[in-house]
Amino acid sequence: MTKYLLVALKSLKSQTAYRSTMLFSLVRSLLYFAIQVSLWTAFIGSGVKNDTTLEDMILYILVNSMILTLTQANLAPMIEASVMDGSVAMHFLRPISYKGYLFASILGKNAYRLITDVLPLLVVSFFFQGLHLPSSPVYMILFVLSTFVGMLIMFELHYVVGLLAFWIQRCWFLRWYLNAGTTFFGGTVVPLWFYPEVLNEVSRFLPFRYITFEPVNFFLERTPLDQAWGILLIGVLWLVLLTILDQVMWRLATQKITVNGG
What percent of the chain lies above the pLDDT cut of 90? Predict the structure, then answer.
């Protein structure tokens, strides 16, 4: 674990090299938050839509932004580049797993973004809007567990797509499809409460809603407790399936590997 922690810390530290980027990233986050609040204010106003108040939506935006930051995993370009230049072969000689190295690296980058992009939003919102945690400790536990599961699901999705580079080499563009699925079926922009029932039902059979939407639902205490553990279990099942898939793909990749330059 110490080795992976060091990788995560070095990844976090590497993000501090360009401080001007931090400033631009913070400004972008504040503008995006302001735009979202303005849009939902125009849509909901002082009333209630689908049992959702404007205060609920502001809290949804904040918590959703936090989870999205934690779950970012743009692995396809990283894996593709290492396959194309042959540097991936070096990972077979290292005393840590390639998957663990990538996870630790992504975790460090996301921790930096959480501190620089999301934390200022939470502070500003605390003073102007007021934030409240779930009233029930059970919902808080569900939120933490589901956020962790969602983070791993997102990582597994991007890792599986990235592993395709061993066969097709160019796979960076596939993340667009993952981002589209997460946006459309994951409720990252528009909550699934506002979706037609058909699309809402379809999303239950896909892994995307268990990345951010269900954790936010737990935080807002909108999910009945008699259904909550079942929803968390579905997320865990998706995680298990994706883990099995990536293990099979990795085994096949190590048995027959072709890289350019190495």
Answer: 23
CB 199 within 8 A of CB 127: no
Q: Given this model, what pLDDT does residue 15 score?
A: 72
**Distance between CA atoms of 92 and 95, rounded to whole angstroms?**
8
Phi/psi for 137 (5° steps) reads -65, -25
Computed from CA positions of residues 260, 7, 213, 236, in that sequence, does the dihedral angle turn out positive or negative? positive
> pLDDT-based confidence at 7, cuts 50/70/90?
confident
The DSSP annotation for 72-141 comes to: ----HHHHHHHHHHSGGGGGGTSSS-HHHHHHHHHHHHHHHHIIIIIHHHHHHHHHHT-----SSHHHHH
Buried b (16+ CB within 10 A) or exposed e, 190-227: ebbbebeeeeeeebeeebbbbbbbbbbbbbbbbbeeee
Rounded to an integer, the average pLDDT of 150-170 is 88
Question: Are 142 and 232 contacting, i.e. CB atoms less than 8 angstroms apart?
Answer: yes
State if pTM tops 0.90.
Answer: no
The CA distance from 216 to 62, in Å, is: 10
Q: What are phi and psi of 227, to 5 degrees?
A: -110, -15
What is d(CA 242, CA 160) in angstroms, rounded to the nearest whole number?
Answer: 8
Please state the separation of Cα 209 from the chain's center in Å: 11
With a CB cutoff of 8 Å and minimum separation 6, the contacts of 185 are 199, 202, 203, 206, 208, 209
